[in-house]
Design goal:
- The chain has 515 residues and is an alpha+beta fold.
- The chain has 4 domains: 30 residues; 119 residues; 97 residues, PDZ domain (Pdz3 Domain), CATH 2.30.42.10; 196 residues, 2-enoyl-CoA Hydratase, Chain A, domain 1 (Alpha-Beta Complex), CATH 3.90.226.
- It is 35% helix and 23% strand.
- It contains 16 helices and 23 strands.
- The strands form 6 sheets. The chain has a 7-stranded mixed sheet, sandwiched between helices.
- Helix 14 packs across helix 15.
- The longest helix has 19 residues.
Length: 515
């Protein structure tokens, strides 16, 4: 009776009740995936969707959603690592079978459609009996699949990795005090820093890394090894290294400390030429460069050798500041271009009182990358600097870091660097005008497959250079090798910042070398 007095209220309550019963009843059937699991209160695949959105909107190249989702599904399937899973790919319908159960999916170039298809596969794999596969692991595997389909430098970072990345950017980290490099696909110690944990432990140059904290580093990138070595001060790390000269492995238990890294080394050569060795581009690089330039001013040097060999790069802002000290104010240093026409930005010389009138020779090799390529490219395109050595690495992309909703992060390639003349650094690298061919170790340049827009004007053999200078009584060493000696002779007694004049001197030297 009372209900009949308020028929509208009754019908609404009745409808809500029925919907609730149906919603919760949907969880009672355990045969196969349930749409409700991705419903009202589910957080399934939230981070994955965030990443797909960012890649769709911000990635340097237009996304191929068919390729992205195919890689994501492949990643989930591989994470199961079971012979019981069969994945059959067909032009129209793809089929996944586990024991006697199966599901199918079809991918197109439509993001929304593919997300629905991926969710079907996600729930199918998670709901298989006897398989302890967490949703988190499946989602992470899908994310890793997506990232593997992009480029080398785009990277997903879990919460801990993201915290470390942010800490390192802020400079609040400890280390062991060693410079590392890669050669012949192995990671080596270049040198240890004065009074550092590495130096005190007796680690030496050319020691090869075997493992860190018990984990083998075979196939690891130099950036990945650096991440393992760095950490909070007073934390420990266990290293195993091979000393090639002794053919013996050594294990060290080291405690990280705050390391003040000197990225710029300066010395004056023959009382005429300033030599600047720049190892990386950190927040302190320009400040340290200025100390070297002040010393050069006192010595009244007439030119500069800038050695960027082995420099993996660093901060874009620092590369612009370093290049600005040798360029006219307002001259372009580098520009970046994203996917859209409007995603364009120029960086120009900053300083009125620069050293633009000074002749410069820049030395690069196959491990000179990113910010070091920006400096080399800017000074080369200005017409004043001569590039000597080997073709550079070719890392001309800009990564932007995004914080995700769960505290993890995404490092995504969002644009590319170009030299002032428009050279695509990623595609071509920085090609030297004077190519030093390493015929001593027989090691080929890893960038020989790149087609450069600038051909080397002069090619010299490292063995011939060594023999030529040694016959003249020059003592060569790793700190003063034949490439540095060649650059010194090109710049000596030169008062004009002219690439043409520098090349003329280089050819004069080359004619005297006995091949």
């Amino acid at each position: 009776m009372n209900i009949n007095k308020n028929p509208k209220k009754y019908s609404l309550s009745f409808l809500v009740g029925i919907l609730a019963i149906l919603y919760f009843a949907s969880f009672l059937d355990s045969d196969g995936p349930k749409i409700a699991e991705a419903g009202f209160f589910s957080s399934d695949l939230e981070v994955f969707e965030e990443i797909i959105d960012l890649v769709s909107d911000k990635y340097v190249y237009p996304p191929n959603h068919k390729k992205l989702f195919s890689a994501a599904i492949e990643g989930m399937i591989k994470s199961i690592d079971s012979e019981l899973v069969n994945h059959s790919k067909n032009p129209d319908i793809n089929i996944i079978r586990y024991k006697k159960k199966g599901t199918q999916y079809k991918l197109t170039y439509d993001r929304s459609h593919n997300l629905d298809e991926l969710e079907r596969v996600y729930h199918f794999l998670h709901n298989q009996p006897g398989k302890r596969i967490t949703k988190n692991n499946l989602e992470n595997s899908a994310i890793e699949g997506v990232m593997s389909s992009l480029d080398t430098y785009s990277q997903y970072m879990d919460k801990d990795s993201f915290k470390r990345s942010m800490r390192d950017t802020e400079g609040k980290y400890g280390g062991l005090g060693m410079v590392i490099t890669m050669k012949d696909n192995r990671l080596y110690v270049v040198k240890t820093m004065k009074n550092s944990p590495a130096q005190r432990a007796g680690i030496q140059a050319n020691d090869a890394f075997v493992s860190v904290n018990g984990n083998k580093i075979t196939g690891m990138h130099i950036e990945e090894l650096a991440d393992l070595l760095r950490g909070y001060p007073e934390t420990q790390v266990k290293l195993t290294l091979l000393r090639p000269i002794e053919k013996r492995k050594r294990t060290y238990n080291l405690t990280r400390e705050i390391i003040l890294i000197n990225t710029v080394e300066y010395k004056t050569l023959d009382n005429q030429i300033g030599y600047l060795k720049i190892n990386s581009f950190s927040k302190q690089t320009e400040k340290q460069l200025k100390l070297g330039l002040n010393e050069a001013k006192k010595k009244e040097v007439k030119g500069f050798i800038i050695d960027l060999r082995g420099n993996p790069g660093g901060l874009l802002t620092q590369s612009v500041k370093v290049a600005s000290h040798f360029l006219f104010k307002g001259r372009m240093v580098v520009y970046t271009q994203g996917r859209e026409t409007g995603d364009y930005e120029e960086y120009r010389g900053l300083y009125k009182d620069s050293l633009h009138q000074m002749p410069v020779a820049i030395i690069v090799n196959e491990y000179s990358a990113s910010a070091s390529e920006i400096v080399a490219g800017a000074l080369r395109d200005s017409g004043k600097a001569l590039i000597i050595g080997k073709n550079s690495y070719g890392k001309g992309s800009v990564q932007t870091i995004f914080r995700l909703s769960d505290g993890s992060g995404l490092r995504l390639t969002t644009s590319k660097y170009y030299t002032p003349s428009g050279v695509d650094i990623t595609k071509h690298g920085i090609a030297p005008e004077i190519l030093i061919f390493d015929d001593i170790t027989g090691k080929e340049n890893h960038k020989q497959d790149k087609t450069s827009t600038i051909e080397s004007s002069l090619k010299l053999k490292a063995s011939s250079l060594n023999k030529f200078f040694k016959n003249q009584g020059i003592t060569l060493s790793p700190e003063h090798d034949s490439t540095i000696e060649l650059a010194l002779r090109i710049l000596k007694n030169t008062t004009v910042a002219s690439k043409k004049r520098s090349m003329e001197k280089a050819r004069e030297i080359a004619t005297n070398i006995n091949y």
